[in-house]
Write a structure and sequence with these properties.
The complex is a heterodimer of chains A (243) and B (423). In chain A, the strands form two sheets. Chain A has a six-stranded mixed β-sheet, with helices on both faces. Chain A has a four-stranded antiparallel β-sheet with strand order 2-1-4-5, with helices on one face. Helices cover 33% and strands 28% of the residues of chain A. Chain B folds into two domains: 188 residues, no CATH class; 206 residues, no CATH class. Chain B is built from 14 helices and 13 strands. In chain B, a hairpin with a 2-residue loop joins strand 3 and strand 4. Chain B starts with a helix and ends with a helix. The relative contact order of chain B is 0.19. The chains are: A alpha/beta (243), B alpha+beta (423). The interface between A and B is medium-sized, with 32 and 26 residues.
Chain lengths: 243, 423
């Protein structure tokens, strides 16, 4: 991994995610922790992919970089045709806003806001007018099957319903990648199946879905698995769609 | 409009946040409530007091210079004995009036007046009045509303007619009403027809040219009846004083000419008066002094109110810092979704402003209510000025921004990864 990517060529248009020799090092005391140690892969647009690995494999770091919350120490990460490693904080924020939809393990809805307002948050930051936000929120709620709860607060919903709201919010700005971090971690198995069904639907509608999980059961829903170990890619297994 | 719609969700969020922590928000707002309330109330009380002073000064006329005869102080103690039985001659002379009118530039009119206290009598009623022997121009210079009849005319002067103009207060003390016009009253040895009633100005911090119970008669009539000068003997008849004119009011053509005019008058008079037996009052200078006092007063009040606002602001900052900690996770979520740092700053600033403006509005009402109650219960005049309301509102917005900025920056500086993990 001495030779780094120096050419700033865009990856092919059908690659929505591309990691080129991505490293992420932390300094803890005098030691350097290599959370990611040279990772390269790419994900094609419209595919359904799971990133797996036991704890300590660099999965969380991977998620942070994939989610544009963190930048690689070296290497290049292209998301939707732009290199994230070169962005400043504002550009990174805007990139998240337009190109990423987050779904978290513990839903992360804003408790003071109603379902509708929660779904509207990303559109608000995008500067959409009020009427359009309302209309789109209703449409998205309908898409994830939560339209009867638009005026409710998150605390009045069940876990499965909350996760549906979170998915609707993630879809609000029509992102290039839907990034889900253990989306069923806080749900019972019946609800988990429903939520995974929702992701399947979205995949079938053409969305790019990336799951980060340690559960093989959940990863099995995806069409391709990337397995990490000790900050490196251990294996890439493919049913379809992953290069 | 679009901007308002953009901010509205954040304003709503701020309002729901305030509502959720009712007690906390209320206590936090109190600081601003009292701060803003005291700013308005103090300014209103200060303004009321100073306007009262300014009013009484303005009644003297800002273009006028008042020259008054004063008895010179006897510096040498021996002279009191030596002057026993003599007539003390001092004060302004007719010549002084002419000199001022003809040598001081910018003089529009000079009004000589001789004031004496004499008994007036209407039927059975007796009253000691101040008799002002003067010229018709008095009423141009000392402008008072005419309640009935007329004021002195040049014809009265020429004819040396026995007419007098009374003040409203004097008329009332003589137990008469408007029907007194045309009736005769006796003043000292003369009988005068009452020609008019004017309103008089009394009270206030500064002496006005008119007093409560005045009778204005033509100077010529006064001279005919009472003599060219005011000669008064003390009880023993051994001592006396002679004053030609008690007062000369000089009206200048412009407010700006008043100060130079008063210096010119002083130098003219000093040349002809061996002793300093006159005093020059310039209402404008008094006005300036009063305005300076008012400014000082405002600064002191402003400083006190400012401190209470500062305390209120610190209270708000404290609560907002607590709120940032409490909402760390929400900040993380918003950042992960794609909010820029500046959006987080705006959100928290709006939140602080909701608190401070809320407090400001309540304080505004308090600030209007307090001066009103003061006026009702203590009779002290208060003036709530519109600018002080705008000022107070501006201050409360300013406090929201200034004291909200630090907590908001802290919120925005949070690392989104850390913030998301926060429980």
């Amino acid at each position: 991994m001495i030779v780094q990517m120096t050419e700033k060529l865009c990856p092919p248009d059908d690659e929505v995610v591309r990691f080129d020799a991505v490293m992420r090092h932390y300094t803890v005391g005098n030691e350097i922790v290599r959370a990611l140690d040279g990772i390269s892969f790419s994900i094609r647009r419209g595919s359904y992919c799971a990133i797996m690995g036991p704890s300590g494999s660099g999965k969380s770091t991977m998620l942070n970089i994939l989610g544009c919350l963190d930048r690689p120490s070296s290497g290049a990460y292209w998301l939707n045709g732009r290199n994230v490693a070169e962005m400043d904080d504002n550009a990174l924020s805007d990139h998240r806003l337009r190109n990423l939809g987050f779904v978290f393990q513990s839903f992360h809805l804003i408790p003071q806001l109603t379902v509708s307002e929660n779904i509207e948050v990303p559109m608000l930051y995008l500067g959409l007018p009020h009427v359009e936000r309302r209309r789109k929120a209703e449409m998205l709620a309908d898409r994830v099957g939560i339209s009867h709860r638009l005026r409710h607060l998150p605390s009045e919903l069940s876990g499965g319903q909350r996760q549906r709201v979170a998915v609707a919010r993630a879809l609000a700005n029509d992102p290039a990648v839907l990034l889900a971090d253990e989306p069923t971690g806080n749900l019972d198995s019946a609800t988990s199946i429903q939520i995974m069904g929702l992701f399947q639907e979205l995949y079938e509608q053409g969305k790019t879905v990336v799951l980060v999980t340690h559960e093989p059961d959940i990863a099995a829903y995806a069409k391709a698995n990337i397995v990490l170990k000790d900050g490196r890619v251990l294996s890439i297994t493919e049913k379809e769609g992953v290069m | 409009m679009n901007q308002i719609l953009y901010f509205w969700p954040f304003i709503k969020l701020g309002l729901t946040d305030v509502w959720r922590h009712k007690t906390r928000s209320f206590l936090t707002m109190l600081g601003v409530v009292f701060g803003v309330g005291s700013v308005i109330a103090m300014l209103a009380v200060g303004e009321g007091a100073s306007q009262q002073a300014l009013d009484s000064i303005k009644r003297l006329g800002s273009e006028n210079i008042m020259v008054t005869s004063v008895k010179p102080s006897n510096e040498d103690g021996a002279s009191t004995g030596a002057q026993r039985g003599r007539l003390a001659v001092y004060g302004l002379l007719y010549d002084d009036e002419v000199r001022i009118r003809e040598t001081v530039p910018g003089v529009v009119v000079t009004v000589p007046a001789r004031m004496t206290r004499r008994n007036a009598r209407l039927n059975e009623r007796q009253l000691e009045m101040r008799v002002v022997e003067t010229v018709p121009e008095w009423f141009d210079v000392v402008q008072r509303p005419v309640l009935a009849g007329r004021v002195l005319t040049p014809n009265d002067m020429r004819m040396r007619s026995n007419v007098c103009i009374l003040t409203e207060y004097g008329v009332r003390r003589l137990l008469a009403a408007e029907g007194i016009i045309g009736q005769h009253i006796r003043i000292a040895s003369g009988v005068f027809e009452v020609a008019g009633i004017v309103k008089n100005e009394t009270g206030g911090a500064v002496r006005a040219p008119d007093s409560e119970a005045d009778a204005y008669i033509p100077l010529t009539t006064g001279t005919r009846l009472f003599g060219e000068a005011n000669i008064r003997y003390s009880a023993g008849g051994m001592e006396g004083e002679k004053v030609e004119l008690s007062e000369i009011i000089v009206k200048m053509d412009d407010t700006k000419a008043v100060e130079t005019g008063s210096k010119a008058i002083e130098s003219v008079l000093t040349r002809f008066h061996k002793k300093k037996d006159f005093r020059i009052d310039v209402p404008l200078t008094l006005l300036r002094e009063a305005e300076r006092t008012k400014r000082t007063y405002n600064i002191v009040l402003g400083a006190i109110a400012g401190i209470s606002l500062l305390v209120g602001g610190i209270g708000i900052m404290n609560i907002m810092l607590a709120s940032v900690t409490e909402r760390t996770k929400e900040i993380g979520i918003r950042r992960a979704i794609g909010a820029r740092r500046s959006r987080i700053v705006i959100q928290f600033l709006i939140n602080t402003c909701v608190l401070s403006i809320g407090g400001g509005v309540v304080g505004l009402l308090l600030g209007i209510a307090i001066p009103f109650l003061i006026t009702v219960f203590t009779d002290m005049p208060t003036v709530v000025q519109p600018y002080s309301l705008i000022l107070a509102f501006g201050i409360s917005v300013g406090i929201g921004i200034i004291f909200g900025l630090y907590p908001a920056m802290r919120a925005a500086a949070l690392d989104p990864i850390e913030a998301l993990r926060h429980e």
